[in-house]
Amino acid sequence: MAQAFDATAQEKELAARAQEALALARKLGASEAEVGASVDQGLGVSVRLGEVETVELSRDQGIAVTLYVGKRKGSASSSDASSASIKAVVEKALAIARYTGEDPAAGLAEASKMATDLPDLKVHHPWALDTERAIELALACEQAGREVTGIHQSEGASLSSGEGVRVYANSHGFLGTQKGSSHSLSCMLIAQDEGGMQRDYDYTSARNPHALRDPASVGREAARRTLRRLGAKRPPTGTFPVLFDPSLASGLVGHLMGALAGGALYREASFLCDSLGQPLFPEWFSLGERPMEVGAQASSPFDGEGVQTRDNRFIEDGRIASYMLSSYSARRLGMSTTGNAGGARNIRLEAPLETLEALLKRMGRGVLVTELMGQGVNGVTGDYSRGAAGFWVENGEIQYPVEEFTIAGNLKTMFAGLQGLGGDIDTRGSIHTGSWLIDAMTVAGSRV
Description:
Layout: H1 7-27, E1 32-48, E2 51-69, E3 72-78, H2 83-99, H3 131-146, E4 151-170, E5 175-193, E6 196-206, H4 215-227, E7 238-244, H5 246-260, H6 262-266, E8 286-289, E9 312-316, E10 319-320, H7 327-333, E11 347-350, E12 353-354, H8 356-363, E13 366-373, E14 383-394, E15 397-410, H9 411-416, E16 418-422, E17 431-432, E18 436-444
Parallel strand pairs: 7-13, 11-17, 12-16
Antiparallel strand pairs: 1-2, 1-4, 2-3, 4-5, 5-6, 7-18, 8-9, 8-11, 9-10, 13-14, 14-15, 15-18, 16-18
């Protein structure tokens, strides 16, 4: 990197700036105030066909201030954390607050809910990586993939490594800081036969660089995934079971959490409004979050409002057990915050797990989906329609790759029709899940 990143020094500096902003806000007449500040530094390189394409050294920082004058709210931000900039930001936020309408739900989260348990969750693992070594690793990743017989071309390999610090403070006296890191390596390759070109990719991602997979294994897996798509054709049209690859099943979880989010609920923009306690999944399925999990991708002892995070159960024995609420959305709904300002953290599923082979056998005849395209998901109605690619399955076995088709259904029906969960858990993101087998969806493929 261009310069050393002293996370501890940055943490102290940001905390001082946040306290400075709060003191000024009180002095100028704000009844309540909160400040978020962050600084991040990273290195990114990309290579293609054995040559370096880009090298990027980045450093970003920012400070955001939200002030309340009674029930009037104003917010302003800046990428400059100097004293002069802080003064300008606070003054601007205060001016906005004095001219906005009153909102009965506005204000900080309750002081009694501020986090007091602030352990080190081991999410900061800096990587002493210079540009030359980063390029070397990316080149090794791409080269391993290109050496696989049948690979025709490359879209390249990319490596990124970064670390940062965030601080949140408010006029309740709460001050929370957290250092974090993120590292990843990816590769995308192209193969070609008489039927045309196909591309696919693989990646590895982790907080700790020592947890990244070997570059060569990423390149070879990208090659394997690419080659298996050759000879793709369109599947038949009809109603069939659909098996979602783990990387795509996490998207289904994302749609669920979006529908359980307080912001969508109080706006009546969710297909799960007024659904607490109602069945949504089979009884053998539960889902929750573990924000205090040591070393995980989204771990944090406090949420975006300083509220203590906790394990939450959103789905319990198939039923909706909790919404995902910030203090504001909770007030709008007449409820209490669940410590989810900023979203859910480290989603984990509880269900009997089966092998991929067992799920394919249970499916019998249908589609294994490994890629989705488009944004055809309606959060208000739950209607779901996406372009897809993957593999056709007959008699419980993969037969051939398929592409240029759509799958459609409704998320409520899909969740209720969940038949099985795979043990092929993808742990690269904050949502850990295996494959999902849905009993029936509309597949629009070849013309009939």
